[in-house]
Every structure is written in C-alpha cells, then in structure tokens.
Design a protein that fits this description.
This protein has 399 residues and is α/β, with parallel strands linked by helices. The chain has two domains: 145 residues, Aspartate Aminotransferase, domain 1 (Alpha-Beta Complex); 234 residues, Type I PLP-dependent aspartate aminotransferase-like (Major domain) (Aspartate Aminotransferase, domain 2, 3-Layer(aba) Sandwich), CATH 3.40.640. Helix content is 44%, strand content 18%. Strand 2 and strand 3 form a beta hairpin. The structure holds 4'-deoxy-4'-aminopyridoxal-5'-phosphate. 4'-deoxy-4'-aminopyridoxal-5'-phosphate binds next to helix 4.
Length: 399
C-alpha cells in the first residue's frame, strides 16, 4: 500500500483539474488538417503551440520521401544503432548533419530527449562538473542525473553568476561542461552565448549548446544561435532535435571533437533503444535540405513572431523578454491560466498550458509557438482570441 500512496495527492490534483471543465493535459487532436490547424473537441482549431516552426510536417517532398522509405525499408528498424538498427539512411543523415553544421561528425539518436541523455551521460561522469542554466530543459537535467557528474545550476542567462561559480571551482574548470540553450523553450529568450563562450579562454571549460528551438530558426543558414552570434567555433557540442523545425522525431549531436564518435560505444541511451524508423530518417533528411534551400520559411516565421509578440504585448499581457517564435504569456495564478487556456480553446485556438513546476520561477503560463506556415490572418485570429478571453478572465479577477 505504501508504494502507491504517493499517487493519492496526484489523483486529487488531477480530479480538481477535471472539475474545472476538462483536464487540459488530455487534449486529443482528433483530426489533423494542416501544420497549423486540427479538429480538437469537435472544433476546427488553430494550432499555436506545436514547435512546427517551418511548417514542414505536411511538406509534399518530406511526405514522399517518408512513403518511399516505408515501402522500401519497412515500418521500423527493430533494433538499436549498435546492433541491426544502423541503416544506410542513418549514416547519410549523420553525414548531412555534420556537413550542414560544418563539423567533423554527427551522432543521431531516437529522440531529442535521448540525445541529451546519451551525450551528457557519455561526456561526463563522477568527478566531472556540469554547470547548467537553471532554465534548461528536463532532458538536460535528466542527462545530468544519468551522468553522475556534480551538477551546479547558475541563474538563468546570468553570466556574472556563472563566472562566480566558475571561479569557485578553481582548477576543476578544465573538467567542466557548461550547458545552455539557443532559444529557451519556455520564455523564448536566447542564451548570451557570445559572453559565455568568451569565458572559455579564462577557464578552459567545454561548452554544449542545445539548439532544439533555434535550428532552422536563427542564423543566416538556419544553424542556430551559435551561427547568429558568430561563435560556432567556440561551441564544442551542439545538440538538437528533429521534432521541431524538421517536423519529425529524433535527435542529434555534432562536434569536431573526435571523441564524439567514441560516445557510440558507451552511451546507453544510444545503445539500448531502437533507432529512428526509416520513414522518419527519410523525411528528416528531406526537411534538412528544405531548411537550407528555403530561407523564406524562416523570414515568414519571424514576421509571424513579431506580429504575435507585438499584438499580445498591445493587449497588455506579460510576455517573455524578447521577440521569438515562442511567445509566453505569464498569468498570475494557476486557476487564471487554466481559465484562460480553456477560453482560448473555446475560441478555436490551442496553445500550451504550462503549470508549476514546468515553468521557470513557479510561473503559470500560456506558451504560444508560431510557425512560418501560419497565415497573417491566423496570427490575427490568435491575437483576437487572446484579446477576447483576456477581457473575461481579467474582469473576473477584478470582480
Ligand atoms: N531539448 C530542448 C531544449 C527541448 O525543448 C526539447 C523538447 N521540447 C528537447 C530537448 C527534447 O526533444 P524531443 O521532444 O525531440 O525529444
């Protein structure tokens, strides 16, 4: 009985959510219409929380590539990368990723989550030190745990705090790995990568940058924040995912360090799980090509990001610190966030509801992510829904 007791509290919390008019964590996308629309709760709904930054999930070339691969290679690899699960497609994708980033090698994982687990647990272990930004994604925290390294958190985007902690480490900094993200997944702000990477000269640490939300989004060629900031050479390892701008599933790490190739022999999240299926590898390879050939997708994404951010700011919502395809509105309580989120859904707009402890600083938030595939009209409809729901939610707060 004691074993399952901890679920009582969770069951109560889940029941309370349901009593509010439906459990927000049980949304079912009943029918997908396009990268930006679906039927949810029987209603045609604009999707504004998908990370489908370039809208490639319905790209005809990606679909064709996936269909050909599934016909020719079957539905799955039924094996791990280290056993029977490395197909020619995985090797080709790794070469193409390495070339795209201008690095010597790339390793592909089955998800972005596993990429962080796999790389962090292989690069670091007991006796090493990881310094990570406090707002890093759960996969980074979990990777740290799996590694067994000492973990030190520094305040989000606070270079002074990082510097102080590095100084305290003394000569241990040479066996330290610093982890930051290109665009942070919750507030949509960028890491100060130029300032942080400049500290390498003094302290001699290694730097890992997770470009999950910035691949295809930042940089002239879409390589991410390091490219935008002009500091790619100072970043030792870049991790990313196929599940956002590339519209698939899977993850990767690229690097010039020859040791990256050796991680294949020790990384448990690489070795002990099935490799990405041929259709996903094929659509991802095609999406990576399109990402390079179609900078207009990125320009449309940014035009939409500006439009959404500026209009939501105009309504008076408390947003993240800078314009980005992730636009997060902070609400004053969990109850207000849930009511707002449900109101938006009733208006035919889906955004991500983020409740503590998922959001930074224990905030409750509505997290939007725009796509280059949203039309201007859809962005305006999202903003109109926010405006109309904010009227009723904030009025009830004041009443
Ligand atoms: N890293 C970051 C920064 C993320 O935001 C995410 C997913 N939201 C991941 C890694 C994990 O990627 P995936 O969902 O493809 O496993």
């Amino acid at each position: 009985m004691a074993l399952l007791r901890k679920f009582h509290q969770l069951a109560e919390a889940q029941k309370a959510l349901g009593e509010g008019g439906g459990d927000p964590f049980k949304v079912v996308v009943e029918r997908v219409i396009s990268p930006t629309e679906a039927v949810v709760n029987g209603r045609r709904t604009i999707l504004a929380g998908t990370n489908n930054y370039l809208g490639l999930t319905f790209d005809p070339q990606c679909i064709e590539a996936a269909l050909t691969a599934v016909r020719e290679q079957g539905t799955g690899t039924t094996g791990s990368r280290m056993a029977n699960g490395t197909f020619a497609g995985h090797m080709a994708l790794e070469r193409e990723l390495a070339d795209f980033f201008g690095r010597k090698s790339a390793v592909v994982f089955s998800t972005g989550y596993l990429a962080n687990l796999g790389i962090l647990s292989a690069l670091t272990g007991p006796g090493d030190v990881i310094l990570l930004d406090a707002d890093c994604h759960a996969s980074i925290y979990d990777g740290c745990r799996l590694s067994g390294a000492e973990v030190i958190r520094f305040r989000h985007n606070d270079v002074g705090d990082l510097d102080k902690r590095l100084r305290r480490l003394g000569d241990q900094t040479s066996k330290s790995l610093i982890i930051i993200e290109g665009i942070y997944s919750m507030l949509g702000d960028r890491a100060p990568v130029a300032e942080i990477s400049a500290l390498k000269r003094e302290y001699g640490f290694y730097l890992l940058l997770d470009e999950a939300h910035s691949l295809g989004v930042l940089g002239k060629r879409g390589r991410g924040l390091a490219e935008e900031a002009g500091v790619e050479q100072r970043v030792d390892f870049i991790v990313g995912t196929f599940s956002k701008s590339l519209g698939g599933t899977g993850g990767f790490c690229v690097s010039n360090h020859p040791e990256l190739e050796l991680t294949r022999y020790i990384s448990r999240p690489y070795i002990f799980t099935a490799s990405p299926s041929p259709s996903v590898v094929a659509s991802t390879r095609t999406a990576l090509k399109i990402l390079q050939e179609r900078p207009d997708l990125r320009s449309r994404l940014w035009a939409n990001a500006h439009r959404l951010y500026e209009q939501l700011q105009g309504i008076g919502l408390k947003l993240g610190p800078e314009v980005s395809p992730i636009v997060a509105a902070r609400l004053s309580s969990k109850e207000e966030a849930i009511a707002f989120w449900m109101g938006l859904l009733e208006c035919g707009v889906y955004v991500n509801l983020i409740l503590p402890p998922a959001a930074p600083n224990g905030d409750s938030m509505l997290r939007c992510s725009v796509s280059g595939a949203h039309t201007t009209k859809q962005v305006d409809q999202i903003c109109e829904a926010f405006s109309s729901v904010s009227g009723s939610v904030f009025t009830s707060r004041e009443a």
